[in-house]
Amino acid sequence: MTGGARAWVVSLAATVASAYALDATATAAGVAVVASGVLGDLGPRWALAVLAGSYAVWAWGLRSNLRANQALLTATGTSTNVLSKAAHDLARRHRTGPRAARVAAAAGYTATEVAKEVPYYAGAFGAAALTDPVTATGAMLFLAGANLGAAGYEYGLARLTRAFLRRRRYASFDTDWDPAAYLNGYYRTVEPDEVATIAFLVDALRGAERDRPVLFFGVGPTLHHVFAAAETASELHLGDYLPGNLAQIRRWLDRDPRAHDWRPFVRYTLRCEGDAEPTDEEVTAREELTRKKITDLVEVDAARPRPLPSRYATVVSAYCADSATADRATWARFMRHIGGLVEPGGLFVTAALRRCRGYTVAGRSFPSADVDEHDLRAVLRPDFAPPAIEVRQVPQQAAHGYGGIVLCHARRRTDPAAD
Ligand SMILES: C[S@@+](CC[C@H](N)C(=O)[O-])C[C@H]1O[C@@H](n2cnc3c(N)ncnc32)[C@H](O)[C@@H]1O
């Protein structure tokens, strides 16, 4: 079974189990409130007030669960509500940006939970209308009890989902990613993986077509790879999934004093290009050139088959698809979508953490697809000429969760059969 099919089967099973469990909990709580008689002396007005209050508690429980469900969807592609998953996946396919998918997932979930209320209303007020012992007040108290039971259930499910995600060690881009913590944790100095990556990138970009726009896909809050393309590109287009990441780049473009300092990376890039001792002026000049060439900051989602309307002569996507999911099938799909943005004959430069299951940012572990050079070769084979691949061991990065990286550049085939 593919990873995608498995996610649907798991979501469907979780939905069925969750529906029964919610039903049992809510009914038991409703019956308990009525049978205990604790609110038996309330008049209809107070019963109505209690019912309204119980909805507020239910909304609070549901809110916790919607957040946990979103984290689950982002990290694993599964959900405890299959309609929520369907809405989420559909939104990600057709709309740009994580917000649309988040809203769709929440709407799908909420619609199902509200629909589940209908039988309770029909049962409670039907009984009140048709039988003498059940009064309208009794029906309202039953519903209030059921709401409180449902609230407890939603909250409990949220805790369970979070505990599951913690056990699986996955943090979520939608809810847990902290761009500033990422920059502080990885980009204070040029660490060994970036020493290798930037040198590889500079070399690979010597084969890029000059004076054409270059796309950086999944750039995060970073610019350290972008400086290498500033001279070759006519324009630099930077895409990432999270608006918060793009906001960090915007700060740097706007010369905001809070912006990250990329000068050590610019200096190292210039060294890789052959300037043995770049001066401060040369570093500043490359920063300025890069600022001038960045003409587009755009939200992208690798889950979309065509993440952007145009294709590019050069696409750079480093530590994006592999660092966005723990599921290999999803990684392969993301790679096909990103690779699809390279025009025929164009250059694709990519990098991945090697055989890594998770990398840490501010003490939280984000998913990684556990891929290696063989996986990369296989995923590129249908659309790209045989790639140039280099594997680098970076044991110094072990504290971050990985000990190797795979660096790759490949040219997209021009023959229409392969396209
Ligand atoms: C580990 S960061 C790498 C950022 C940058 N390329 C670097 O080398 O530091 C992974 C990036 O993938 C992005 N990402 C996660 N899911 C994505 C998706 N579905 N589509 C595009 N980018 C995604 C995240 O927002 C994050 O910026």
From TrEMBL:
Source species, domain of life: Bacteria
Residues annotated as signal peptide: 1-21
A molecular-function term among this protein's GO annotations: N-methyltransferase activity
Transmembrane regions: 45-62
Keyword terms: Membrane, Methyltransferase, S-adenosyl-L-methionine, Signal, Transferase, Transmembrane, Transmembrane helix
GO BP annotation list: methylation
Pfam families: NNMT_PNMT_TEMT
Entry keyword annotation includes Cell cycle: no
Record-level GO cellular component terms: cytosol
NCBIfam families in alphabetical order: GntF_guanitoxin (NF041360)
PANTHER family reported for this sequence: NICOTINAMIDE N-METHYLTRANSFERASE (PTHR10867:SF17), NNMT/PNMT/TEMT FAMILY MEMBER (PTHR10867)
Protein name: NNMT/PNMT/TEMT family protein
Species assigned in the record: Dactylosporangium aurantiacum
